[in-house]
Write a structure and sequence with these properties.
Shape: globular
Mean pLDDT: 87
Distance between the termini: 22 Å
Number of domains: 1
Low-confidence stretches: none
Number of helices: 12
Structural class: mainly alpha
Order of helices and strands: HHHHHHHHHHHH
Largest sheet: none
Strand content: under 5%
Helix content: over 70%
Radius of gyration: 19 Å
């Protein structure tokens, strides 16, 4: 565990020594603030529902920027060989880097809590629904980061890693819309189950379903396991 924490600390320092963390967090918080102001003051919806939906879409687009450097920068900087010679197991490398990315995710998430101040001052929001939305956001973010980290391990170019991750995550986000075009009940159910947006929609509605929680955790587990296996293959 100490080795994982040491790698985690290295990742956090790497994020904040470069403009990536500041850029991503700033863009995300500014985007979220815009959507919040639009939904509350222009549409008159004194809830976080619309803001959460926009936060999810925004998260899908900025997650690749967080993850693109995780392994690609190690390859291009020539430090991956040094990292693999350290007394670290492959899964420890994967988990340490993943936890670093999750920390950036949590900073983004907690930063949006400032939007709750006017809601509670001038409205009567449902706290349980808001908590459900944040739980869904965290799970969605973890799944996106795990997928992005996997693709970062496949290439030495950070831009390529991001360009591969973006369409994959967008496909997971939009695939649920294909349900209406399916006559097969099996395909209809499959497209609904693998849709990031449909599961996230349940959390926004205040429903913390075990099926949705399990789905995001399974996506994380599969991506991180494949990541670990790929590092083992490279060795």
């Amino acid at each position: 565990m100490n080795r994982v924490l040491a790698l985690y600390q290295k990742e956090i320092l790497s994020y904040f020594r470069s403009p990536i963390a500041y850029f991503v967090v700033s863009v995300f918080l500014l985007g979220t603030a815009y959507f919040f102001l639009y939904n509350v003051f222009l549409t008159g919806s004194a809830t976080m529902d619309g803001t959460f939906a926009n936060m999810g879409m925004l998260l899908v687009t900025v997650s690749p920027v967080i993850t693109m450097r995780l392994f690609a920068s190690e390859y291009s900087g020539g430090t991956m060989e040094l990292l693999t010679t350290l007394p670290l197991r492959n899964w420890q490398i994967v988990i340490g880097k993943f936890l670093g990315a999750v920390t950036i995710l949590l900073l983004m998430m907690f930063g949006t809590a400032i939007n709750l101040i006017p809601l509670y001052l001038y409205g009567n929001p449902e706290t349980t629904t808001i908590l459900s939305g944040y739980i869904g956001f965290a799970l969605l973010g973890m799944a996106c980061l795990a997928v992005g980290q996997l693709f970062s391990a496949f290439t030495q170019n950070q831009i390529v890693a991001a360009l591969i991750t973006v369409p994959v995550l967008l496909a997971f986000w939009t695939i649920g819309h294909l349900q209406s075009f399916q006559s097969s009940t099996t395909l209809h159910a499959i497209f609904g189950y693998v849709s990031f947006s449909l599961h996230f929609g349940d959390f926004i509605s205040g429903l913390v379903r075990s099926e949705a929680v399990a789905f995001y955790l399974v996506v994380c587990a599969i991506a991180l396991t494949l990541n670990t296996s790929y590092l083992q293959w490279r060795r």
